[in-house]
Amino acid sequence: MSNVAISQDASRRELDRLAELAEDVIRRARAAGASQAEVSASIDTGLNVNVRLGEVETVEHTRDRGFGLTVYFGQRKGSASTADLHADSIQATLEQACAIARYTEEDPAAGLADPARMATQFPDLDLWHPWAIDTSDAILLGQQVEAAGRAHAGITNSEGASVQAGENLSVYANSHGFIGRERGTRHSLSLSLIAGEEASMQRDYWYDSVRSANDFISAQVLGDKAAERTLARVGARRLTTRQSPVLFAPETARGLIGHLLGAVSGGALYRRASFLVDHAGKQIMPGWLNIVERPHLLRGQGSGAFDAEGVASRDSVLVENGVLARYVLGSYSARKLGLESTGNAGGIHNLVVESGNADGGAADDFQGMLKRLGTGLLLTEVMGQGVNAITGDYSRGAAGFWVENGEIAYPVEEITIAANLRDMFTGIRAIGSDVDRRSHLLTGSILLDNMTIAGE
């Protein structure tokens, strides 16, 4: 079998079909008495191959459909969805949504986004790169990735390599007359390896995630990276409890930015379940630090011309000179707060954390960030759910490396790092130029001036 990628013309035909279906259902919802209606429809196709120890473990072909309808009877809302695009299922979904809306309480904040905010321009963001890889070729690629990693002396086992190719077609339409079509591809390679034996066993991994398969790092490079990371963890120690600066590696640094987003998102704010309630316009980070949303980056992991409500996306500052410039809002949360949507229904688009430091000089690469850390903890993994969104208290299991005089000294494990997110954000000393581009949260490594490390 092969993964037959959807062609340019076929993808357009599918989008047109979804758009026609959405328009028809909105017309029928209005005829059934809905004052407003919106539809989201999607088709996801993909191939996922897993290989372990040179043998095929799983091969999965997917073709999933989704259709969701929300209707408003005044300010009473009803939603229903189906994974079946046949006429009978669509009609049942429409009837269910209308029935729910007729019996729900009125909500003053309910309703579609402002019609004046609907997107009118739809630039090509270079997101559509189907990967017509045969299943046999995907298996071979997975085997090559794994073989590259297992060839390193000291690697004792493998948890497997994965090859994924995925395509998404989606349409959002509403009774303002808005119809937005989106198509995008997302492909990934990953490898997880084991080094050492029994009590000294260590595991680590590496992966790549791209819009176009032409942008992948090579199988050899990915295998080498996974092996190097795994071998580097052999002989890990615990630390004694201490205070120390901490350098978040780029892949952990974006989690820190994720906590910021959670704290400034509308749902948390109108429920007053955030430590940053009423902080718009206030200093929350050092004065040299800027964070900007850039939804129109070519091949960006989070690029899009409009949000989940059809509101046009645009470049927008989130943090300027350390000051929280705005919140992250869809229309519902904006109304609950007496504000306007920021075009973030469904989440943030590409968020760029600009590299820099308090010195005002050029941003450091990873080696430069280690030197700036001096002696302290390089954090490469966090685990657990110890983050309190209301108070900002942060306490998580961690692993990484102890650094002395700007050089990695030895691996560490079974430690806990703790602080308060308020202090962590204000205590950012530098942000590296070593940006991890595998996410819609684009940040380099982040150096914090002090955290508590609990160990032995």
Describe the structure.
InterPro entries: Metalloprtase-TldD/E_C (IPR045569), Metalloprtase-TldD/E_cen_dom (IPR045570), Metalloprtase-TldD/E_N (IPR002510), PmbA (IPR047657), TldD/PmbA_N (IPR035068), TldD/PmbA_sf (IPR036059). Keywords: Hydrolase, Metalloprotease, Protease. There is one protein chain. With 456 residues, this protein is α+β, with helices and mostly antiparallel strands. 24% of the residues lie in helices and 35% in strands. The protein is built from nine helices and 18 strands. The protein has helices at 8-31, 87-103, 135-150, 219-232, 250-263, 266-270, 331-337, 366-373, 421-426; strands at residues 36-52, 55-73, 76-82, 155-174, 179-195, 202-210, 242-248, 291-293, 316-320, 323-324, 351-353, 356-357, 376-383, 393-404, 407-420, 428-431, 441-442, 446-454. The strands form three sheets. A six-stranded antiparallel beta sheet has the order 3-2-1-4-5-6. A five-stranded mixed β-barrel has the order 7-13-14-15-18. Strands 10-9-8-11-17 form a five-stranded mixed beta sheet, covered by helices on one side.
Short account of what is shown:
The protein is built from nine helices and 18 strands.
